[in-house]
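Fill in residues.
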């Protein structure tokens, strides 16, 4: 099934998820709720794009043998061309939010596609687990579902090998097993869009150190009994797209997920107490490759938009002749080109995995994702440095509707723009780099794919450096006992 925007909103409004916000449980239709309507309407536009004639060569043409259509985001690419086509569709979706929607449906749908396509691998832990992930995948594909996910334990004690006692459960774990399924109690971090998606993907957390009752992987509907989403404070302080051009549309919210004796039926469990499968499924199925590929496509779009905004600011206040300004904008260009090149490298160097999925090469993608954790905060600094006081002199929509409008028109105009255009531009710069929404975006780009420090450690440890060390040794003509 290939849903459109109104089908998406209708479905969202049927949800009865247990979402907590500002000390209250959320009631009523989500698509008109003051906090969720912005992001849900933005998501609905993505589903409409699936039916847009202009992009039909990207979004249409994926169908089951029985002719039923499904979304590009669930398609298993079998060749480089199919991967590139998928990347273009992700790019079109990302453009719709200037790359601000970190969790457009294609993000976790990529994971579901990889896990489902690699179902055979999960059968190593028991035949039924392969059957489970296969049916989760097919169900998602058939209904064009969207997912949130949680891969992280609560941040209570990060010293190595820390585990809570049985009486003091914090990190979600299996506390019982019945003929119906496994019972989970405890919490997980940090589900972006938690509670406002159809289902939730839960994967093991804790890397090499996980054991026993912490080894599980499953997908359940977000309205499963006992599941609670505890949202942080929302950052879309008003509906005005003049005042909050980004937050009013793309505030995704993040939530702690609580499992209060949640029964996960066996036909939804695809990984259970098998250390070998838990350690290897990510590489084996290509899940990280595809998550990072989606992220890099989105980050390229975001960087292009930041470049456009930077140049607009430069033009509005006419600062392009200064060398340091050119240098700063050029830094954005260099970063953008690096990201684009890494994406292409990942496509060209891809290979077909054991399950027939053409998988982009991981090294360029993990390089891009790690690079962006440092580059993005610098991008925000550049926007602030180009803007200086402009990013602070930002009256609101109501100010422009009041009797001070003439003053604003006179004193807040730019060299190349009237006051409304100038203020709207700087409000965008503010919402991107300084507002609560903008600060969260920076933290998101730093951490969304994991702790950058540990990503760097992983990259250092896995990169084959020895051929180059050998070159140096040869150059130095090192032989035992010789000078
Ligand atoms: C805006 C936002 C949205 C997110 N959305 C999601 C989501 O949708 N789903 C999801 O599952 N997760 C999500 N995350 C969580 C994200 O995956 C984690 O933030 C990330 O993996 C880091 O884990 P942590 O936050 O627990 O940091 P911690 O692991 O607690 O790290 C805290 C600090 O301690 C250091 N540290 C801790 N342990 C070590 C170690 N062993 N070695 C070296 N240094 C260490 C870290 O470098 C860091 O400086 C989101 C995070 C953010 C910020």
């Amino acid at each position: 099934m290939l849903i459109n925007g109104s089908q998406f909103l209708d479905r969202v409004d049927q949800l009865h998820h247990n979402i907590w916000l500002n000390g209250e449980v959320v009631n009523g239709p989500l698509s008109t709720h003051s906090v969720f309507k912005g992001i849900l309407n933005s998501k609905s536009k993505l589903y409409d794009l699936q039916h847009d004639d202009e992009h039909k060569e990207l979004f249409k043409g994926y169908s089951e043998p029985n002719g039923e259509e499904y979304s590009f985001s669930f398609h298993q690419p079998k060749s480089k061309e199919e991967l590139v086509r998928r990347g273009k569709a992700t790019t079109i979706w990302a453009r719709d939010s200037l790359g601000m929607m970190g969790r457009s449906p294609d993000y976790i749908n990529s994971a579901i596609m990889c896990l489902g396509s690699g179902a055979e691998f999960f059968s190593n832990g028991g035949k039924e687990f392969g059957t489970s992930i296969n049916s989760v995948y097919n169900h998602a594909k058939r209904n064009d579902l969207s997912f949130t996910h949680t891969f992280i334990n609560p941040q209570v004690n990060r010293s190595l090998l820390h585990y809570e006692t049985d009486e003091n459960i914090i990190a979600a774990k299996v506390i019982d097993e019945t003929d119906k399924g496994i019972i989970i109690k405890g919490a997980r971090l940090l589900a972006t869009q938690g509670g406002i998606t159809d289902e939730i993907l839960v994967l093991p957390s804790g890397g090499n150190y996980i054991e026993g009752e912490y080894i599980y992987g499953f997908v359940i509907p977000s309205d499963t009994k006992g599941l609670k989403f505890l949202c942080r404070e929302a950052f879309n302080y008003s509906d005005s797209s003049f005042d909050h051009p980004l937050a009013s549309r793309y505030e995704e919210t993040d939530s702690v997920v609580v499992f209060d004796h949640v029964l996960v039926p066996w036909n939804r469990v695809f990984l259970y107490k098998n250390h070998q499968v838990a350690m290897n499924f990510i590489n084996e199925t290509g899940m990280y490759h595809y998550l990072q590929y989606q992220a890099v496509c989105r980050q390229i779009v975001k960087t292009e938009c930041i470049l456009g905004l930077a140049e607009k600011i430069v033009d509005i206040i006419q600062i392009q002749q200064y060398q340091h300004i050119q240098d700063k904008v050029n830094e954005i260009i260099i970063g953008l080109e690096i990201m684009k090149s890494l994406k292409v490298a990942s496509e060209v160097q891809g290979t077909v995995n054991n399950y027939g999925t053409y998988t982009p090469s991981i090294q360029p993608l993990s390089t891009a994702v790690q690079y962006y954790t440092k580059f993005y905060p610098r991008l925000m600094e550049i926007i602030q440095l180009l803007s200086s006081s402009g990013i602070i002199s930002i009256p609101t929509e109501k100010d422009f509707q009041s009797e001070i409008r003439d003053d604003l028109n006179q004193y807040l105009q730019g060299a190349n723009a009237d006051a409304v255009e100038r203020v709207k531009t700087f409000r965008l710069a503010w919402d991107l780099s300084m507002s609560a929404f903008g600060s969260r975006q920076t933290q998101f780009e730093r951490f969304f794919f994991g702790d950058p420090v540990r990503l760097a450690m992983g990259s250092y440890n896995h990169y084959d450096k020895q051929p180059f060390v050998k070159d140096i040794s040869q150059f130095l003509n090192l032989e035992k006992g010789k000078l």
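The domain at 5-280 is CATH 2.40.110.10 (Butyryl-CoA Dehydrogenase, subunit A; domain 2).
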